[in-house]
Design brief:
It comes from Gracilaria vermiculophylla. This protein is of the alpha+beta class and about 450 residues long. Strand 2 and strand 3 form a beta hairpin.
Length: about 450
């Protein structure tokens, strides 16, 4: 009895999972959660959410604030256990629905089904009578319209557009492939963020996300050989570019590329993206020999971004160096915020009888490094989905022909484009009439 109860429970679960309505509901729920993940920035620090989603008296901030985001796990929604459970249920539902519903329907669609009287006649959408009986001519007429024809005694069954019935199976198959690819990427991939000064060597170590089966490339070393910013005529940033070099354990250069946004470097499944940049510090020479390095701080005033650096010139006074753009002049202000001068790199200036020379504006470039082992499977799923969308526009049409007394009755049915199907039936009748009266 216990075994029968277990089997009944499993069968009940199987029937529920194979329900197409459940699959659609799960898909809509997953899409809704994904929209939330698109609106709310993911994988940011708590300080970021506290700043951008504060708690105040406004209605929106009462509904969505940083506490709610952190407590519900909306800051990493795609790794949330509830979201993973939804994906698992959706995957199982697609799989069971494909094998229990879609594949049997396709197999059944390939069988010839000769006409049945009474209630089957009432279910068909198009019924036509022909006064003369000539099965060879009606077979020829159907064949001329690209129908597959089956003849048995005084009955004919014809269909075309069977590929239109394959489209739902392709949709299921594409989603299953996409979910498998995402699962492989989740378990076997990693994402790292690195901020690297120009000219420095770096290793992949700042991991922000990784699967339990992921593996870091321990035989790979990178170096930012150069960094540059391209500006538009209006002095806005057009692009920032890093010259990235990769080395193996023997310090041999194995790959080099200028990377920028939407043009990463890919090597052995590891992708290096250009993500950000910043000014790190200013290196300058004081007098005839002392070279120092001062930290630059990013500031924003009236939505204008600039970097500032303070340099003491005596026990009480200091100067402020302002950098607006990387390749622009450097403005120097006194303690009262009065502009003293503007200089270029390597240009010597004298302040309080001391010679200053700015040698270099030191920059850092931001890199995102990630592996995605399931990306090809995921893209294959997207490709199959696009193909299935095209195939789904193909109409699946069926025609039944039977002789009743001294005339032929034609019954037709289609799943889409009914006006086109009516025109097709008229064309079949015209061909039949033409060859019958010859």
């Amino acid at each position: 009895m216990q075994l029968i109860s277990i089997k009944n429970t499993l069968w009940y679960i199987f029937k529920k999972l194979s329900n197409l309505g459940l699959s659609i509901s799960l898909l809509l729920l997953i899409a809704s959660i994904s929209i939330i993940g698109t609106i709310i920035e993911q994988n940011q620090s708590i300080l970021y959410y506290q700043k951008n989603y504060p708690i105040n008296n406004q209605l929106f901030n009462q509904i969505v604030n940083w506490k709610i985001i952190i407590n519900l796990g909306l800051d990493h929604i795609y790794l949330n256990p509830c979201f993973m459970l939804l994906l698992t249920l959706f995957f199982c539902s697609l799989l069971t629905c494909s094998f229990s519903n879609q594949l049997p329907k396709l197999k059944n669609a390939r069988k010839w089904k000769f006409f049945q009287q009474d209630k089957k006649t009432r279910n068909k959408s198009h019924i036509t009578n022909l006064e003369t009986i000539s099965f060879p001519n009606i077979i020829y007429s159907l064949h001329s319209s690209k129908y597959y024809v089956f003849h048995k005694e005084k009955q004919i069954y014809a269909y075309k557009g069977l590929s239109g019935r394959i489209a739902p199976i392709f949709v299921h198959f594409s989603m299953i492939l996409t979910l498998i690819g995402c699962l492989i990427s989740l378990l076997g991939g990693f994402t790292a963020q690195e901020i690297v000064p120009k000219g420095e060597i770096f290793h992949i170590k700042n991991i922000i996300q990784s699967g339990f089966n992921s593996k870091l490339p321990d035989n790979l070393t990178g170096r930012i050989k150069d960094f540059d910013i391209k500006y538009n005529p209006d002095k806005s940033i057009q692009q920032f570019v890093s010259n990235l070099e990769l080395y193996n354990n023997e310090s041999r250069n194995i790959k080099q590329k200028y990377i920028f946004v939407n043009s990463p470097l890919i090597f052995n499944g590891t992708t290096f993206y250009q993500t950000d940049w910043r000014i790190d510090s200013i290196r300058l020479k004081i007098g005839n020999g002392n070279i120092i390095q001062q930290k630059a701080i990013k500031r924003t005033i009236n939505k204008q971004v600039f970097w500032s650096c303070q340099l003491p010139i005596n026990e009480k006074d200091y100067i402020i160096m302002i950098i607006n753009k990387l390749n622009d002049n450097i403005s120097i202000y006194d303690i009262s915020n009065h502009l003293l001068t503007s200089v270029r790199l390597n240009e010597k200036i004298v302040i309080n009888s001391t010679i200053f020379q700015i040698l270099e504006v030191m920059t850092k470039t931001g890199l995102q490094i990630k592996t995605d082992p399931g990306i090809r499977i995921t893209y294959t799923g997207f490709l199959v989905l696009m193909i299935s969308i095209v195939i789904s526009y193909i109409s699946y049409s069926q025609i039944w022909v039977t002789s009743i007394l001294e005339h032929i009755e034609i019954v037709g049915s289609t799943n889409r484009a009914k006006l086109t199907f009516e025109e097709e039936l008229i064309n079949i009748q015209e061909i039949y009439t033409q060859y019958t009266w010859q």
